[in-house]
């Protein structure tokens, strides 16, 4: 007996909502199997259309992003993009998660789905000792995805698998919440490398400046006593290695530069790189 192929992801919702087609399919089954299926699906087959609409409201909202052509092409396997390719040795690849409507629920659901698949792939990559080439996992609009994607867990998985995790956002303050007002600084502090582009906001520049530390700046003050003999007092002040203004506003000849801090390895000094 020839069986029907399983529906593709983009066909799941239409298949569930088409109750008339489900009844037709059941009619082709043997009597005993048909009776068992009808008992299992009694509520699905017999409730009113209004109740059925209410019961499937959440499901329709969660699956509606499969209606987008670009999403269905990837999920149905009709494109050259396959997450499984990240496990193949000898490939230099990166994954980018992010969408223009990052605040919308559908975008978050899609990002969570891809991040979950990617983490599972990297778990297998690490467990079986698959080295391969370096892989970068980039989360754009990361602050909008932190409620659905567990970045600390992802970081632990990817670090063990030798994969880089890059969080892209306009300001570290976007990670802050009422419950966790310093969340942005904590997340940024866990990053091995921080990159600041020109015009970065004040809070991010302050974090960057503090992480660089300060240096002693020798100073001497000269005073005059009553007896016309002058005397000097030497000391030193603490000056930031890079001030907030230096991080935010670059000279004209350095406008197209990024300030990068690397916290891992022997290189701890700030340096400039052109892009």
TrEMBL record:
<dbReference type="GO" id="GO:0005886">
    <property type="term" value="C:plasma membrane"/>
</dbReference>
<feature type="region of interest" description="Disordered">
    <location>
        <begin position="210"/>
        <end position="241"/>
    </location>
</feature>
<protein>
    <recommendedName>
        <fullName>TraD/TraG TraM recognition site domain-containing protein</fullName>
    </recommendedName>
</protein>
<keyword id="KW-0812">Transmembrane</keyword>
<feature type="compositionally biased region" description="Low complexity">
    <location>
        <begin position="221"/>
        <end position="236"/>
    </location>
</feature>
<dbReference type="Pfam" id="PF12696">
    <property type="entry name" value="TraG-D_C"/>
</dbReference>
<dbReference type="InterPro" id="IPR027417">
    <property type="entry name" value="P-loop_NTPase"/>
</dbReference>
<keyword id="KW-1133">Transmembrane helix</keyword>
<keyword id="KW-0472">Membrane</keyword>
<feature type="domain" description="TraD/TraG TraM recognition site">
    <location>
        <begin position="134"/>
        <end position="249"/>
    </location>
</feature>
<keyword id="KW-1003">Cell membrane</keyword>
<dbReference type="InterPro" id="IPR051539">
    <property type="entry name" value="T4SS-coupling_protein"/>
</dbReference>
<dbReference type="InterPro" id="IPR032689">
    <property type="entry name" value="TraG-D_C"/>
</dbReference>
């Amino acid at each position: 007996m020839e069986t029907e192929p399983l529906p593709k992801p983009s066909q799941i919702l239409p298949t569930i909502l088409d109750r008339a087609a489900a009844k037709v399919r059941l009619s082709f089954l043997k009597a005993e199997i048909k009776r068992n299926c009808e008992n299992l699906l009694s509520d699905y087959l017999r409730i009113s259309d209004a109740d059925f609409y209410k019961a499937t409201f959440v499901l329709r909202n969660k699956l509606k992003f499969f209606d987008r052509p670009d999403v269905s092409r990837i999920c149905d396997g009709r494109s050259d993009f396959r997450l499984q390719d990240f496990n193949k040795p000898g490939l230099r690849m990166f994954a980018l998660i992010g969408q223009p409507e990052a605040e919308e629920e559908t975008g978050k659901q899609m990002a969570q789905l891809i991040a979950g698949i990617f983490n599972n792939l990297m778990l297998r990559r690490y467990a079986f000792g698959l080295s391969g080439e370096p892989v970068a996992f980039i989360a754009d609009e990361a602050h909008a995805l932190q409620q659905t994607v567990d970045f600390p867990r992802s970081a632990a998985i990817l670090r063990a698998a030798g994969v880089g995790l890059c969080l892209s956002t306009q300001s570290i303050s976007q990670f802050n919440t009422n419950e966790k007002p310093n969340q942005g600084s904590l997340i940024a502090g866990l990053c091995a490398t921080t990159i600041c582009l020109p015009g970065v906001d004040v809070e991010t520049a302050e974090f960057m400046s503090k992480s660089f530390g300060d240096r002693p700046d020798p100073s001497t003050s000269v005073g005059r006593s009553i007896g016309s003999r002058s005397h000097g007092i030497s000391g030193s002040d603490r000056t930031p290695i890079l001030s907030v203004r230096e991080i935010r506003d670059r000279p004209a000849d350095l406008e197209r530069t990024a300030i990068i801090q690397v916290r891992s390895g022997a290189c701890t000094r700030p340096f400039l790189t052109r892009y």
